[in-house]
Amino acid sequence: MKIYAFERTNIGKVLRAEASGSFEQCLYFLYAPTLIYEDTYPRSKHVRWSFVLQNVTELVGCILCFNVVQGQIGYVLFEHFGLVGHTFSVFRLVKMLFLQMVVGILSFLIGFYVLLHTVQNIGAELLRFGDRQFYKDWWNSESFTSFYSTWNSPVHGFLHTYIYKEVFGLGYRSKVVPIVCVFIVSSIVHEYMMAVILQFFFPVLFVLFGGFGVPFRFCGKPRFGGNAFIWWSLCTGVGIMYFFYTLEYFARLNNCPSANNYFWDFVTPRFIQCGSITW
Fold first, then answer.
1. CA–CA distance, 144 with 233 (Å, rounded to integer)
2. pLDDT tens for each residue of the chain, 279 residues long
């Protein structure tokens, strides 16, 4: 994403024979906590090492909290799935699904704080990067339009600058096509990242984010209960994703039957073929 942003910003300058970004500017941009390239950024005068230490301490604390959540009510519920002699009834899986909504939203909040607060602030402080608005008050959002534009400012800025504006500049009078393109690109990239990390393709995120996220984006602000609906949707969606990804991960870890072809094994869920699910 950063390489694309750097090239997309400087290609016009090169074609117009203007001064383009230098190697030093590109190198700084690669490490800076932003996805929008600029030749210069606001910089602080010095590094506040006490602020760095504070965020490192918070990072360690978040990691410990995450391990406690996972160790008590997270992956430990799935670790025997697929093993011989261990069966899971549908009713038990449904109860686990609802429990994973709690695990999922806690993991989501911890992950948000780690990735968009502590890690970003550590990097920004070490690089004396001045712009620290990595997120806004997304927890107060009353519509998904507001949520999508406030919860992750760096990614939202990239999608708006390099996807939405590019597609809109092709001549579309309506905003529908650019918005749908943004969701498609974002869903594909996120699902690709999940496939690389987990080593299997299971498009739960793509279906939920691309399938349900787009209609929610075009829904206006409700008259009442908008914020409650946002939180309910987050708990439900993250819980469903966490449940299926964890279930499939342990099905593969515990050697459930696989397809003979590598490609079909990569894209076919193994938890269905385990024989561990009973009525």
1. 10
2. 888 888 888 887 777 767 677 888 888 888 989 998 888 888 888 999 999 999 999 999 999 998 888 877 778 888 888 787 788 888 988 888 888 898 889 999 999 999 999 999 999 999 999 888 899 999 998 888 888 889 889 998 888 888 888 888 887 777 888 888 888 888 888 888 888 888 888 888 888 877 787 787 777 677 777 888 889 988 998 999 989 998 888 888 887 777 778 888 888 888 887 877 787
Ramachandran class of 71: left when φ > 0, alpha when ψ lies in -120 to 50, beta otherwise: alpha
Per residue, the 3-state secondary structure of 174-210, as one string, reads CCHHHHHHHHHHHHHHHHHHHHHHHCCCCCHHHHHHH
> Is the Cβ–Cβ distance between 79 and 250 less than 8 Å?
yes
Identify the CA nearest to 277 among candidates 261, 256, 253.
256
Residue closest to 278 by CA, chosen among 31, 114, 78, 87? 87
Judge whether 190 counts as a catalytic residue.
yes
3-class DSSP state of 24: helix
> How is residue 241 written in tokens?
């994703």
Closest among 167, 197, 161 to 181, alpha carbons compared? 167
C-alpha count within 13 angstroms, C-beta hemisphere, residue 96: 20
